[in-house]
Amino acid sequence: MKVMLAGAPHIPPISTVSGVMKQVLYALIPAIAAHLWFFGLGILFQIALATGFALALEAAMLKLRQRPLGPFLSDYSAVVTAVLFALCIPPLAPWWIAFTGMLFAIVVAKHFYGGLGHNLFNPAMVGFAAVIVTFPLDLSQWLAPRQLSPGLPGLWQTAHAIFTGSLPESLSWDTLSQATPLDALKTGVAENRLVTEIRDAPIFGDFGGLGWEWIANFYALGGLWLVYRRVISWHVPVALLATVVVVTVPMWLMGPDINPSPLQHIFSGALVMAAFFIATDPVSGCSTMKGRLLFGAGVAILTLAIRRFGGYPDGVAFAVLLMNMAVPLIDRLTRPRTYGH
Length: 341
Fold this sequence. Notes:
It is a single chain. The protein is an all-alpha fold. It is built from 16 helices and no strands. It is globular and about 60 Å long.
């Protein structure tokens, strides 16, 4: 019996940048749908604005650097940066938040370092860090989830708030906005209230924040699909989430009244999003297997430290950027041994 084989070499198909980026966008669709359900139409406006600003700034920088527009505008890297950034900001944030974020993400973090593949820092997190430092009030005005809202803003009301920077006369921030679960925890602990008492507020769900825990589940669903498709490796997500559990379980067991549970940490804020979509960035993250484990663990520890001792309720963006600075050293120390030596 003869088996006919194609001629050598036998190699797997080559992944393209655009192909990888499109898979990341597909994996984000469930989380975007959850955002849309729990917090209204604003997320679609933010994605559209951030994407438009990102592509325009990308084109301008490519023109200034005398690079061809077509290949770089069609690789979807700027679109992924824009979508990840938009998912981090409040749905009714004014339009200049998206512009400022993309200015720092595309121009400063990406092209000032040489463009795609040369950036030291994660562009989306650079953009988010820039706006949360510059516009802290605008970044704190999160809407209450659908279950607690008197009525999420409609299409015209959402557009009015985003493009004018103020709500229509029929709405007010006092009725629409509400502290996020991490904000409520941080404020309550600062007031010497017990975690069990703080969690009695309706903003909290079974594990984390009401609505936020479902969004985290959908991030995990999309992230697991990326692992299955081998777009990302398992090292960073496992190291990040496992480190959160290992660090928080002892403190929670010793003092559940003053320390949030591991599930509270994981299902509130952006930890799951960071584990699968941000810390796994192949350019600004580690390239060695051991390095990825260290990188994920470092992001987790820094995030928990910022949540506990820092001035921001969630420290994912700053944790990722700090670990980006350590990537060259981590890769150098974890470089695998050369074959034969």
